[in-house]
Design a protein that fits this description.
This protein has 15 helices and 16 strands. It is elongated, with a radius of gyration of 28 Å. An eight-stranded mixed β-sheet has the order 1-5-6-11-10-9-7-8, with helices on both faces. A five-stranded mixed β-sheet has the order 13-12-14-15-16, with helices on both faces. Helix content is 39%, strand content 21%. The chain folds into two domains: 241 residues, Bira Bifunctional Protein, Domain 2 (BirA Bifunctional Protein, domain 2, 2-Layer Sandwich); 89 residues, Anticodon-binding domain (Rossmann fold, 3-Layer(aba) Sandwich). The longest helix is centred in the N-terminal third of the chain and has 18 residues. By secondary structure, it is an alpha+beta fold. It binds one RNA strand through α3, β6, β10, β11 and α11.
RNA sequence: GUGGGUAUAGCUCAGUUGGUUAGAGCGCCAGAUUGUGGCUCUGGAGGUCAUCGGUUCGACUCCGAUUAUCCACCCCA
């Protein structure tokens, strides 16, 4: 118990952290080039923010939130996603006063009380991007392109981009009535879960895996065919931008996102080789959200990209992730006097920006060499009484085995040149 | 919340129809004439066989419960 991390959480151990750092580095580079700046918000927020933001009928809000009361009697929730906090901060800090659109990104941990499985954890990490203030389809295209560029820069291949439009509240309401009218006739033939969906979220019935439901869904009206004029224009324009940006996409009229705030553009990027939870990235437009959270009517769009799922994809595709820089030099010592000298030499090297390491265990010279080899250091220097007395030592290149003489007084300069 | 699989060394796994000192490979530590790693060889440390209970003369092995973990449904990143 004491030595077991809570269900659905995972450590990133020192041997693995370089993978995360590489992904984070790549993310920051791409965001810089797109003009998105990082925002950092608290891990927890007032519960109400998420209830209002995601919609209190959604699964996430109803059964997956880590909610507790703090000592002051406030209801607090560990963030299950990033968008609500970003909007809150946008309003609280009057970011709308700056030239629009406001473009920001974040790399955060999120918390949802779910049963863990492949690609699903209770604590997971998300790279998110948000753009507030523009309703132009060009920003939709930019956001999608940012995600695709990141994946491309990481060397990920064969991901599928699916896009859809779920319209604005007006055309969706009209469509919902149409759809429910159609489904009403077949209500008794739907599966149990779809019967529940009928009231809650009839759109999702069209995405059901049951044969019966699929059959019924085939002839159902499709939202994409029932968009109002301005929503249709918006979607057509987005497709046009994507085509001009050479971004391949499929239109999937059955993408239904589980959060209430989405309007118009929704999209998903799917990986086939990471198990049942294939959505690496999901997002869309949320033109009503900022108003819902107390701001003036402001359009917005963004996405969330799961870092764990991204890592699974990279590993699944056998993509090599660059390791961090190896230690430059290991100073092996023989005897107590040399050990003390080694300690200060290592310090001197580090002060000059040269990574250096020494022994901190009871180890023979041979064992120290072995240790240096396992650390993957580039060079090893042996330090004993002789070297201290003569001021000269031998430096071994661990890759080639070549040994050269060096002067202890010029250790820093010599190693800098190597 | 529901369903299925799994649980033996730090890791990956063996363990014969229940039979007494539970094994291998990798990893770790040490040594192979005492000041130079990788390859090889030798030796060593390390396990309440997830936990609790039951059956039995006897359980790592059979049965039950609990817990953990993996996978899937739902939903999502």
């Amino acid at each position: 118990m004491l030595t077991k991390a809570p269900k659905g959480t995972k450590d990133v151990v020192p041997e693995e952290s370089y993978k995360w750092q590489y992904i984070e580095r790549t993310i920051r580079k791409v965001c810089d080039s797109y003009g998105y700046k990082e925002i950092r918000t608290p891990v927890f927020e007032h519960t109400e923010l998420f209830e209002r933001g995601m919609g209190d009928t959604t699964d996430v809000v109803q059964k997956e939130m880590y909610t507790f009361e703090d000592k002051g009697g406030r209801s607090i929730t560990l963030r299950p996603e990033g968008t609500a906090s970003a909007v809150r901060s946008y309003l609280e800090n009057s970011l709308y006063a700056a030239p629009q659109p406001t473009k920001m990104y974040y790399i955060i941990s999120c918390y949802r009380y779910e049963n863990p499985q492949k690609g699903r954890l209770r604590e997971f990490h998300q790279f998110g991007v948000e753009a507030f203030g523009s309703e132009k389809p060009s920003i939709d295209a930019e956001i999608i392109s940012l995600a695709m560029t990141l994946l491309n820069n990481l060397g990920v291949k064969g991901l599928e981009l699916n896009i859809n439009s779920i319209g604005c509240p007006e055309c969706r309401k009209e469509y919902n009535e149409k759809l429910m009218k159609y489904l009403e006739k077949h209500l008794d033939k739907l599966c149990i879960t779809c019967k529940e969906r009928y009231q809650k979220n009839p759109l999702r019935i069209l995405d059901c895996k049951h044969e019966q439901c699929k059959e019924i869904g085939k002839n159902a009206p499709i939202l994409l065919d029932n968009l109002c004029n301005s929503c249709k224009e918006h979607f057509d324009s987005l497709k046009n931008y994507l085509a001009h940006m050479n971004i391949d996409y499929n239109i999937d009229p059955f993408i239904v996102r589980g959060l209430d705030y989405y309007t118009r553009t929704v999209f998903e990027i799917i990986s086939k080789d990471i198990g049942a939870q294939g959505t690496v990235c999901g997002g869309g437009r949320y033109d009503g959200l900022i108003e819902e959270l107390g701001g003036s009517p402001t359009p917005g769009i963004g996405f969330g990209l799961g870092i764990e799922r991204l890592l699974l994809t990279l590993e699944g595709q056998g993509i090599e992730i660059p390791q961090c820089e190896p230690i430059k030099v290991f100073i092996a010592n023989i005897g107590e006097k040399a050990e003390i000298k080694a300690q200060s030499l290592v310090l001197a090297l580090r002060k000059h920006g040269i990574s250096a390491e020494k022994n901190h265990m009871d180890r023979s010279l041979k064992a120290q060499m072995k240790y240096a080899d396992k650390l993957g250091v580039l060079y090893t220097m042996v330090l004993g009484e002789d070297e201290i007395n003569t001021g000269k030592a031998k430096l071994k290149n661990m890759k080639t085995g070549e040994i050269v003489d060096i002067e202890l007084d010029h250790l820093v300069e010599t190693l800098k040149e190597l």
